[in-house]
From TrEMBL:
CC cofactor: heme
Family: Belongs to the catalase family. HPII subfamily.
Region (Disordered): 406-425
Pfam families, per database record: Catalase (PF00199), Catalase-rel (PF06628), Catalase_C (PF18011)
Organism: Alkalicoccus urumqiensis (Bacillus urumqiensis)
SMART domains, A to Z: Catalase
Protein name per UniProt: Catalase
Stored InterPro entries: Catalase, Catalase_AS, Catalase_clade2, Catalase_clade2_helical, Catalase_core, Catalase_haem_BS, Catalase_immune_responsive, Catalase_large_C
E.C. number: 1.11.1.6
Keyword Lipid biosynthesis: no
Functional summary from the UniProt entry: Decomposes hydrogen peroxide into water and oxygen; serves to protect cells from the toxic effects of hydrogen peroxide.
Entry coiled-coil feature ranges: none
Length: 681
């Protein structure tokens, strides 16, 4: 934990459950000190092991039971602790305490995840990312269980098992792992056309984020905010990352999957360890109750965004992630989120996807965490008192003293007692419902292509290219021509340009349908309009003995001042000696590092680098160049760029050509990618 960090209420609670084993005596679980832990009890030194060996049996049995079922979706995830603070009281909209008291910091625990892959799968695959936040408020836990994409594939929760089955590895051969590029996923998409909008998002750069720190988060559904007069407003929740929303490129993402399957968790862990705390602002889009039907989409439909230009995002607070987990199993694996964990001042809408989720999350924890007492696991405990008449079950921790575990009672003065709404008791919003019981979809949910087209219209040219490439890749991996054809036909409703590209790439006949006539765009959807900063970017300096110490010092100082992280790459580990005799520690060798691990490269070289060094350096630089990344080169290394025909190209900064080289290179790093660069020649 950072030294200047004040423990939150949650930290203090967790501290009571935290155990440090270092320096302690080894005991059994019953506290018996053991004299021996390396040899089982045998009948003779060369004889069989005896059943009497309780220590062996206890140790082995515990090990045999160490695993629990992984999450059925979102199995691969990583978490951090932090704090949330609201900027201004939101009394007009909600009575939730943590959204009104500006002096209060609310402890939070956030888990980021991929959806499709198993617990051990790679993190940079193309997928939706989960973004779950547990606020430990004084009025109970509030869980915002969202994604990094603001819409969903389906409109009704009853289809969720179908969606998950379609995207998971195909059952007959267990392939592919953590990927949507296969027949059953695209067969599902084509035959459930409400998925069109989200499929566009998943195939866009949003499907391959650069970092958990550079991802938006969305509550997706429409919720309600309730104020102290009992008035309701519809709301959508947003997390806006302070570093902006940024992505990998596909070739880079695939290579990262092999070079560092832990790329995203390492990035999160390291940034928190280095004190560069990830920050996200909370945003609210609010619609008045009387405006429910004022839009050209149904606000209960989870496949629709509320365009930010029409319904602005009001920024209301900030979350800072400032403490890494102490134990991945105890915290990241055992945390249980639930969209139904709410506090007074927040309520549900009738979105049929949300309504179904309200059942599924408790149910899944019962099998995953083994029984009904998972709320007692330290990471899940509220920081406020909790009392009721629930008792017993597997692994019950609390010792509930007393005779009474029922209501109504007279023996305990009818306690635990309920709390009237005026005093903070939760009461469901009194929505009036007058309807037939029916299994059907509302007609207002049946426009599947207008917003998919809105998304397409909102993309910049490079973003459109990426979407076309992603569809071409994914459909190229589909083996069944009839599925490819159905997808080509389906996306002709969104864009002929896109559909024709998929047809071309897969050798499929072009579609005959007409595309959506929507011309509207929402600039807020394009990542080109996000924040660009060198902060949080990782710059690799390729250097050898005799490197130009002045050049390295001035570039590193400038970049560090702007918040970038600098790491040194060379042929061998240890230390390099610069032109002025100063030393520089090597962080990666050409063997252990990789071009894809960096956002930008600075080629510095050194004195008399040999051919193998130059070969490796050029390989690193060429790959960064092909991924559109900023590249800088001092005089000593400029020849490597020339040799690969990379000098004099957008985003390539040469010391010889720049009046202020550190500044010019830092500016290039702030631009992140140079899409205008022709990487073909
Ligand atoms: Fe879900 C996990 C997000 C629809 C059923 N979901 C899960 C997690 C996230 C989401 C972030 C991981 C939580 C964690 O880190 O532990 N899910 C969403 C979003 C949805 C959504 C944003 C649509 C807007 N989910 C959804 C539906 C259902 C589920 C419609 C079922 C009716 N989701 C689950 C689950 C999981 C889960 C099976 C698996 C592990 C868990 O709950 O705790 O119950």
């Amino acid at each position: 934990m950072a030294e200047n960090r004040k423990p939150t209420k949650k930290d203090e609670q967790l501290e009571k459950y935290t155990v440090v084993d270092k320096g302690k005596k080894l005991t059994t679980n019953t506290g018996l000190k053991m004299a021996e832990d390396e040899f089982s009890l045998k009948a003779g030194e060369r004889g069989p092991t005896l059943l009497e060996d309780f220590h062996f049996r206890e140790k082995m049995t515990h090990f045999d039971h160490e695993r629990i079922p992984e999450r059925v979706v979102h199995a691969r995830g990583y978490s951090a602790h932090g704090e949330f603070q609201v900027y201004e009281p939101l009394k007009e909209f909600t009575k939730a305490g943590f959204l009104n008291d500006t002096s209060k910091t609310t402890p939070v625990f956030v888990r980021f995840s991929t959806v499709a892959g198993s617990k051990g799968s790679s993190e940079t695959v193309r997928d939706v990312r989960g973004f779950s936040t547990k606020f430990y408020t004084d009025e109970g836990n509030y869980d915002l269980v969202g994604n990094n994409i603001p819409v969903f594939f389906i409109q009704d929760a009853i289809k969720f098992p179908d969606l998950a089955h379609a995207v998971k590895p195909e059952p007959h051969n267990g392939m592919p792992q953590a990927a949507s590029a296969h027949d059953t996923f695209w067969d599902f998409i084509a035959n459930n056309q409400e998925s069109a909008h989200m499929a566009m998002w998943a195939m866009s750069d949003r499907g391959i984020p650069r970092s958990f720190r550079m991802m938006e988060g969305f509550g997706v559904h429409t919720f309600r905010l309730i104020n102290d007069k009992g008035e309701s407003h519809f709301v959508k929740f947003h997390w806006k990352p302070v570093l902006g929303t940024h992505s990998l490129v596909w070739d880079e993402a695939q290579k990262l999957s092999g070079k560092d399957a832990d790329f995203h968790r390492r990035d999160l862990w390291e940034s928190i360890e280095n004190g560069e705390y990830p920050e996200y602002e909370l945003g609210l889009q609010i619609i008045k109750e009387e405006d429910e039907f004022s839009f050209d989409f149904d606000i209960l439909d989870p496949t629709k965004v509320w365009p930010e230009e029409e319904i602005p995002v009001k920024i209301v607070g900030k979350m800072t992630l400032n403490r890494n987990v102490d134990n991945v199993f105890a915290e990241n694996e055992q945390v249980a989120f639930h969209p139904g964990s709410i506090v007074p001042g927040i309520d549900f809408s009738n979105d049929p996807l949300l309504q179904g989720r309200l059942f599924s999350y408790t149910d899944t924890q019962l099998i995953r965490l083994g029984g009904p007492n998972f709320h007692e696991i330290p990471i899940n405990r509220p920081v406020c008192p909790f009392h009721n008449n629930q008792r017993d079950g597997h692994m019950r921790q609390t010792v509930n003293r007393g005779q009474v575990s029922y209501g109504n009672n007279s023996l305990a003065d009818n306690t635990p007692e309920t709390t009237p709404p005026e005093e903070g008791g939760f009461e469901h919003y009194h929505e009036r419902i007058d309807a037939h019981k029916i299994r059907a979809r509302s007609d207002s949910f049946k426009d599947h292509f207008s917003q998919a087209r809105l998304f397409w219209n909102s993309m910049s040219d490079p973003e459109k290219e990426h979407i076309k490439e992603a569809f071409s890749f994914e459909l190229g991996k589909v083996g069944e021509p009839s599925v490819q054809k159905q997808v080509v036909d389906m996306f002709a409703n969104v864009s002929r340009e896109l559909s024709d590209t998929i047809a071309e790439a897969t050798g499929t006949e072009k579609a005959v349908g007409t595309e959506s006539q929507v011309t509207k765009a929402s600039p807020a959807l394009s990542q080109e309009n996000t924040t660009f900063t060198p902060s949080g970017r990782k710059v690799g300096i390729i250097a050898a003995d005799g490197y130009n110490a002045d050049a390295v010092r001035s570039a590193a100082e400038k970049l560090r001042a702007e918040g970038a992280v600098i790491e040194v790459i060379s042929a061998k580990g240890g230390e390099l000696t610069g032109s002025d005799g100063t030393k520089l520690g090597v962080d990666h060798t050409f063997l252990t590092g990789e071009s894809v691990l960096f956002d930008a490269l600075l080629a510095v070289g050194g004195k008399d680098t040999d051919r193998p060094f130059q070969h490796d350096a050029r390989y690193f630089l060429l790959e960064a160049f092909q991924h559109f990344k900023p590249i800088g080169a001092t005089k000593d290394a400029a020849a490597w760029l020339e040799a690969e025909n990379m000098n004099d190209r957008p985003g390539v900064v040469l010391e010889d050509n720049a009046a202020d080289f550190p500044k010019a290179f830092a500016e290039a790093v702030a631009s992140h990618r140079f899409w205008g660069r022709d990487i073909m020649n």
